[in-house]
Amino acid sequence: MATSTDGVSDTQPTALPRDPAEPSSAEDSDRMTHRQTLEALSGMLLAMFTAFLSSTIVSNALPTIITDLHGTQHQYTWVITATLLSSTASTPIWGKLADLFSKKLLVQLAILIFTVGSVLAGLSQSVDTLIAWRTVQGLGLGGLQALVVIAIAAMISPRERGRYTGPIAGVMSVATVAGPLIGGVIVDTSWLGWRWCFFVGAPLALVSLIVVQRTLNIPVIKRPVHIDYVGAALIAGGVCDLLIWVTLAGTEFAWGSRTSLLLAGIGVALLAAAVFVETKVKEPIIPLRLFRDRTTTLATVGSIAVGVALFGSAVFLGQYFQIARGYSPTAAGLLTLPMIIGSTLSSTLSGRLITRLGRWKGFLVGGSILMVAGFGLLATTDHATNMVLLSVYLFLLGTGMGMTMQNLVLAVQNTVAGTDLGAATSTVSFFRSLGGTVGVSVLGAVLAARVTDLTVLGITTAGVPVPAGGDASSVGIGSLNELPDALADIVRAAYGDATSQIFLVAAVLSVLTLIAVLAIKEVPLRTKTGIEMQREAVREAGAA
């Protein structure tokens, strides 16, 4: 049991903490009142909303963008992948910097980088230029994803944090739904055009920058700073290399080809070198000592599985609704509302109950079980599943995810030292994003193979003639609009039936999350904020 310097336990509260608006010491005066916290959150959540919106708003505009800039299908993929690569690779670096420098300054820097990248992406005259500025956007996005959660942990103790998870989940959910809808409206409005998909976020980002400057006041704890430049370069290089490998393998080159083996080998070598460097430097980007803690290790494992299941399946849900069921992009976005509503409600309710009860493991276990159940039920669907029933399955899945994702981070933040808060938080987020990126590629390969098999089987069984110059295995989604109706129906049905296999894989991965959660030891929630823990750690180090 951790004990503060005055002998009072900081991990086993018997009642809710007193109102921080009534400080009783100089140290307590660093705490923000509920009103001040909400004001500071408003600026950060506006920035987060803008960043998440930018990730989804481009989805419906991409066909128009690629056509207007005379791009290729290969470039189409990289407009999305470039942002994903840079945001994932930069997340642990932003997190470590948050342990060393002003969190407020870093949040503002991330907003500025994101805004500059957005405006310049909107001014692009070629797809290659657009991809480059989307990479800059991703750097800012990676910072916002990590720093907002870290800043909240610095301001609010784990015991009180649950009451603020609702707004965070709500912002993420609204941005996810609103992005494709706004993007579609912008593209369809003649006097706007696709460039406004990038410009529209700039005013919101600038407003958030002003609000953050006025309301976010997190003390900077002075301590010696050592920046691990070599480790940062090796981690970023290794991660980007492996993500490029899993993104291109199976499409641009075979998995077992020389190019594939070379990329995989370089990525592994860079990460192995990074691990060696991280054991030698004074302030590693990802402190390996974090993984000596059982909670951090298990939460990281659980987050990888959540990332694969969440990102991988979510990407293919939109395609399922549009291709297998024939809905428009806008309607496809609205059909995911049950999952988003479930996630928002469960994260809000579980957060409030965790604050009231001081216990969190039961919600993690319950959320993991609901995730397994949701994916398992979705694995029984096909191209003709009743939409009401499908909505119920999605609601169950969303409810499980809402109880799991934020609380895995909470479990880690409640365990690590104050000086490692940023690194630990970003490490969990990093592995979740990494799992999601790999999941999209691997599940996509599984889906493509299954669609091909079912299409060949359907054509053979129905005896439908294949257009001249092709064969059954070459008929697919890419030529869907050019196929005769009878053949197109077979392909659509094959896609709808094959998607269930994606959910089956996600269900198996969710079982791994459940096992990891069950093995986590519940530690009573601390009542000290991240800043208070960091100040105490620095004071103890100075005394030693």
Can you walk through the features of this model?
The chain has 544 residues and is mainly alpha-helical. Helices cover 72% and strands 0% of the residues. The radius of gyration is 24 Å and the shape is globular. The relative contact order is 0.13. The model is unreliable at 1-29 (pLDDT under 50).
Question: How do the helices and strands line up, and which of them pair or pack?
Answer:
Blueprint: H1 34-57, H2 62-68, H3 73-100, H4 103-122, H5 127-155, H6 158-161, H7 165-188, H8 196-199, H9 201-215, H10 229-248, H11 258-278, H12 294-324, H13 329-335, H14 337-357, H15 361-378, H16 387-413, H17 421-462, H18 485-519, H19 530-543
Name its key features.
single chain; mainly alpha; 72% helix
